[in-house]
Write a structure and sequence with these properties.
The chain is an alpha+beta fold. It has 6 domains: 254 residues, BirA Bifunctional Protein, domain 2 (2-Layer Sandwich), CATH 3.30.930; 106 residues; 73 residues, no CATH class; 102 residues, Elongation Factor Tu (Ef-tu), domain 3 (Beta Barrel); 151 residues, 2-Layer Sandwich (Threonyl-tRNA Synthetase, Chain A, domain 2); 106 residues, Diaminopimelate Epimerase, Chain A, domain 1 (Roll). Helices cover 39% and strands 25% of the residues. Strands 1, 2, 5, 6, 7, 8, 9, 10 and 11 form a 9-stranded mixed β-sheet that branches. The longest helix has 41 residues. The protein starts with a helix and ends with a helix. Its EC number is 6.1.1.7. Pfam families: DHHA1, tRNA-synt_2c, tRNA_SAD. One of its GO terms (molecular function) is alanine-tRNA ligase activity. Belongs to the class-II aminoacyl-tRNA synthetase family. It is found in: Cytoplasm.
Length: 867
Amino acid sequence: MTSQEIRQKFLDYFKNKGHLIVPSAPIVLKDDPTLMFSNSGMTQFKDFFLGYKTPTAPRIADTQKCLRVSGKHNDLDDVGRDTYHHTMFEMLGNWSFGDYFKKEAIAFAWELLTEVYGIPKENLYVTIFEGDASENLDRDQDAYDFWKSHIAEDRIINGNKKDNFWEMGESGPCGPCSEIHVDLRTPEEKAKVSGLELVNNDHPQVVEVWNLVFMEFNRKADKSLEKLPAQHVDTGMGFERLCMALQGKSSNYDTDVFTPLIAKVEELSGKKYTGILEDEKDIAIRVVVDHIRAVSFAIADGQLPSNGGAGYVIRRILRRGISYSYRFLDMKEPFLYKLVAVLQEQMGPFFPELEKQGKLVAEVIKSEEDSFLKTIENGLIRVEKLIQQTTANNQKVLPSEEVFELYDTYGFPDDLTRIIAEEKGLTIDEEGFKAEMEKQKLRSKADSAQKVYDWVNLESKPETFVGYDQTESETYITRYRKVENKDGEFYQVVLSSSPFYPEGGGQVGDKGVLENAVESFEVLETKKENGLIISLINGLPKDAGAVFYAKVNASERKNSQANHSVTHLLHEALRDVLGTHVEQKGSYVGPDYLRFDFSHFNKMTEEELALIEEKVNKKIKESIALQEFRNIPIQEALEKGAMALFGEKYGDNVRMIQFGSSKELCGGTHVKNTSEIGHFKITSEGSAAAGIRRIEAISGDKSEEYFNNLEKQITELSQLLKSKDVVRSIEKLIEENTSLKAEVDALKKEKAKGEIGEWKNAYEQKGNKQLLVKKTSLDAGSVKDIVFQLKREIPASVTIILSDADGKPMITVGVSDDLAADYQAGAIVKDLAKEIQGGGGGNPGFATAGGKNLEGLENAYQKALNI
């Protein structure tokens, strides 16, 4: 059975059991402040479990892309070292939202595994939650009783809280779970040791394949448990492990999920994969084929590698893959990007984002490979210098601070530093390096540390967003919670009627005030979490249950929504001018400016930028009225021509924004008429990543401010130049400057000629050689010309010139060709440069060095006399 058939059988089985089959949510989470990535199948259904949203169907099944590389669920360091851990993996899942519970979930799982997939029953074991007295949780007797009708009781194992009580994070939905384990060992191995002894003991052939979670509780911030409004089922079956079991393999990497990728790596690297766990080459191949999946899906879902947040995690995964291939596969040129086509062929039919975004994914990965390979090359030079310094001091241990700086500042892998050091008979200060890493983690933790308390519920009123229609509203606080961070103590509030737009879709969250006749609080930010619109205020009201008036900062909202509307017009104009390959890849919409990232592989020309501006401003002048479809079926919106963005998760009903021919699915706030935008001006265009261009622009008040400043500058220039024709006046100044520069250059040359005659007579005879050490205030260019002339004309000579032109120390050394075997200009200048706290270099015949210490020229002069 192929992996494609295994996946399809799962979906078909649950479809026949009345489940709605839904597509995978994006691997990158954009509107959940508690998580960077989907780390489990249930992530996209959190709001259903918590009762914030109504499920689209009571029974759902899917295959979800997951990534576990940060936070509580972090498998990164295990990847490649064993046969079954992965960064990106598929989670097959079936869900019940207040419909069926333990009995049916257990029956479905058993029937699918044993009758549909045909796994021998004697190879299966199950675990149930044994209870936990510290939390007053009883043994899951119901699950035990239901399993008894399917499997022998001696194959039902009690599991502790760590293994059999599933929690998504520090807080959130949770509950007891029942795991299904499969024993894939040979009959001979099974005869020696029972599978009962190996369940949950990290045996590579006795593995958990499916976890049935019975979602009953919500873990609160104070660690207490409260019952959820309804009981739910949340199951997760590891697709890669299931394929291993059904295809009779002992490693996930031997299944056809990975073998096509491994074959391509073998072809490109010339290395043969043997599947040996401890073999560094095989570890590297496993790392590469795992990581290319994670990185490709993240980029396809809209997350580009970067230096912060989720982008940093993706860059780290990719660099880990490059590092392993560089060290153990001898791959010194980019090659990972060539694996994207194989991945597309394998998974494209189930995940259309890979088909659509394949070219972009490959371009971004290739660019990252180029960049990091250069980092490695530069790092190798730095490591070599560090080794030289260490050995010169008769030391055998590389200092931890320098090794950490290589890793942290320059991105050079610390394990590569270890390997190079060991080859030279050295080690690194491991304890010191660990201490430096710990310091960094503590700094990072301190910067992001935040303590969030539990919600205090007040008014049981509907919580609605009214910000599309009004910027002020009478409201109540329905719930609040305290938040403590490095900036102090704040409170998050949820309002019954909120005009504050929560950050999302690229648009910043609203600020404003929450006040009544008694007190007033500043609204510092507004975000969305688990379907709730949460505003952060700078204090707790004395009477939190009183009536309040919520007021949005009107001027900031006006400018933000003008910028948001103009991004829609910009998107359409870019597709008109550059082609329909253009797709939005990210945006920032604030009151001061907008940023728009889009797929395009060439730098835009001035003509293209001018045409874009012209098209957008034409739409603004046409005074096109907003057509808002606030809640229509997504299929209807798509049929109307609305653009849906890859990497976004849309519901069954959506909001469509239309300005004439521009139609997009969007949840942001917008102007009522394009004339409110005023004017659009592009301020910059550049590269955001390989295949991604970035436009920054302004509109509305900021655009007006921009042109007012330009007018003011032109007026000031006109006054300075005493002319209204500023352009012609500047042209004249340039002409005069060119003429004066030519005169100055001529004077310098004349002065240099005079110096040459004097310097020729100033050489001091040193045996059969001649030495000139001279101080001057000539500029570097003149000194260079003179030194080249002297070293040609004066045989067996070393010429050293020390200059203080423009108050900066400079040392220039020339060695005549006939002394090249005895003296090196580069070595001389390097030695002398120490006196001016500088450095430099060149070739054996000519070298220069600059420095910071002007007073050090005298010491350098005295030192040079002794050469």
